[in-house]
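Supplementary notes for students who missed Thursday's class. We covered one full example, reproduced here. Read the sequence, then the structure, then the short commentary at the end.
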Amino acid sequence: MKLWGGRFAKATDNLVDDFHSSISFDQRLAEQDITGSIAHATMLGEQGIIPQADADRIVEGLRGILSDVQAGKIEWMVDAEDIHMNVETILTQRIGEAGKRLHTGRSRNDQVALDVRMYAKLACRETEAMLNDLLDALLVIAQEHLHTIMPGYTHLQKAQPITLAHHMMAYFQMFLRDRRRFRHAYEAADVMPLGSGALAGTTYPLSRERTAELLGFSAISQNSLDGVSDRDFLLEYLAAASICMMHLSRFCEELILWNTGEFRFVEMDDAYATGSSIMPQKKNPDVAELIRGKTGRVYGDLMALLTVMKGIPLAYNKDMQEDKEAFFDARDTLVKGLTVFTAMLRTVTFRTDVMARGASGGFTNATDCADYLVKHGVAFRDAHKVVGELVAHCLTEGKALLDLSLAELKAFHPAFEQDVFDDLSMLACVEKRRIPGAPAPDMVQRAIDEGRRALNG
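Structure (token representation):
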């Protein structure tokens, strides 16, 4: 007989048991469920809602179950439906009648909300730690390559020269924002729902504040309907995870491109690449490609839960059982992705000589050429036209801007002088960009120093 079976005249069909049961995946919440129950039982005893002796026996029994869970000694029962009923059933088997008092003043609705919030808090802290590791790796690479010049791109076309350090610090900013998003998701999850009951609270004189204190929550939910039906905190985690995976995917896409024979900007470490079953020469960036592919999986988890929640009336509905698999899958995918990406990034070899040659081609100093004319009194739009004509001329002649003689330059505009050649070098193009956020080495060094402070803050 089910623990809720008093109202029913016959047992549920085996098909229903199998379809209804969530123990196959919510057993992951065992530690959170037991810890939450220990706090609830402690509060019940302190409030005199159940005898203190029973509360003590319940807490002792739950601690024993927790120890067995951690040792892998528990076999979960499908016919007990979920982690909550499994734990309560095992507890009652072990300590007898006192175990039946555990659920006093509580519903599985607020119980599962508590468990998932506790797990979400843990996941946010875990993800933040992994992001810190990645942020540190980016700072190390940036510091090492403060003067490594490379081409910057727009539309995947060479645009202007930058440094590898500047490029890495762009990703630093992305992942720093991700860390803020997970901190916000933590704050959203850090609200204790126990005491909401099924939907309307309870008549027992619970001390919700005491339970929150025992479990380390900073606040309690303010509405019992919302307390059991809110899954915004999971959506915030999934949204943060989706954006973070998008950033990983963009980075992976660049590493994949840079690893090609056409770019040759990087060499992937053998430990983070694979070969071909038929082509012996191949060295494929499969790790980066798989992270790129798994990004869509996390997007799907976010869309799945958004879709589940979009049509649910207050308060709890069984649809919400679908929240956990999407959340767990996104968490697992993100954790694996962050872990392997950071390890891979630390082993990448950057081919600085190829990057430098790449920056010198593609007229990446054309904007600086126009700026040179502006500084010599030419209106920018006129300067833009002149340099465009110069580029067209160079393309016809098979030359770069710095290959032209002063006489050739003056043929296009008399404002050109001998100093233009120093002004258009790749190093000068980078070093002149000295406003905050720009790629000049001293500006990037400032960004690295500020990034280190932010990482430690």
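Commentary. The two ends are 54 Å apart (CA to CA). The beta strands are 149-154, 157-163, 191-192, 219-220, 266-267, 349-350. If anything here is unclear, bring it to office hours.
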